[in-house]
């Protein structure tokens, strides 16, 4: 497990939930709740981290992140990169 962890850390930039991501996540949560359009917490957190860091999210699970586009999340289909 340790070797795998080292491999991941050396090949990828690991982004954590920070204060800015929490602020963004809270604002988005409140707005989605007001509209009755909540998404799963992990998806909200992942999307908020991407927004806070001005990064696109590459995924094949576009449906889960569709509602975050209005908050500035850019979603790229992983299949389009192949």
Structural class, judged by helices and strands? mainly alpha
Number of helices: 4
Strand order of the largest sheet: 1-2
User: What is the residue-averaged pLDDT?
Assistant: 94
Strand content: 5-15%
Number of E-type strands: 2
pLDDT < 50 stretches = none
Q: How far is it from the N-terminal to the C-terminal residue, by CA?
A: 29 Å
For the structure shown, list the relevant keywords:
82 residues, mainly alpha, two-stranded parallel ribbon, 52% helix, globular, PIN-like_dom_sf, nuclease, PIN domain-containing protein
In short, what is this structure?
The chain has helices spanning 2-11, 19-35, 41-52, 62-65, and strands at residues 57-59, 75-77. By secondary structure, it is mainly alpha-helical.
Structure description:
The protein is mainly α and 82 residues long. 52% of the residues lie in helices and 7% in strands. The protein is built from 4 helices and 2 strands. Helix 4 (62-65) links the parallel strand 1 (57-59) and strand 2. Helix 2 crosses helix 3 (41-52). It is globular, with a radius of gyration of 14 Å. 17% of the residues are buried.
């Amino acid at each position: 497990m340790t070797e795998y962890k080292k491999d991941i850390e050396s090949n990828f930039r690991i982004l954590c939930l920070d204060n800015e991501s929490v602020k963004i996540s809270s604002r988005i949560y409140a707005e989605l709740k007001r509209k009755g359009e909540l998404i799963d917490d992990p998806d909200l957190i992942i999307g908020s981290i991407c927004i806070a860091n001005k990064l696109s999210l590459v995924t094949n699970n576009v449906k889960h992140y569709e509602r975050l586009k209005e908050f500035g999340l850019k979603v790229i289909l992983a299949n389009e990169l192949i």
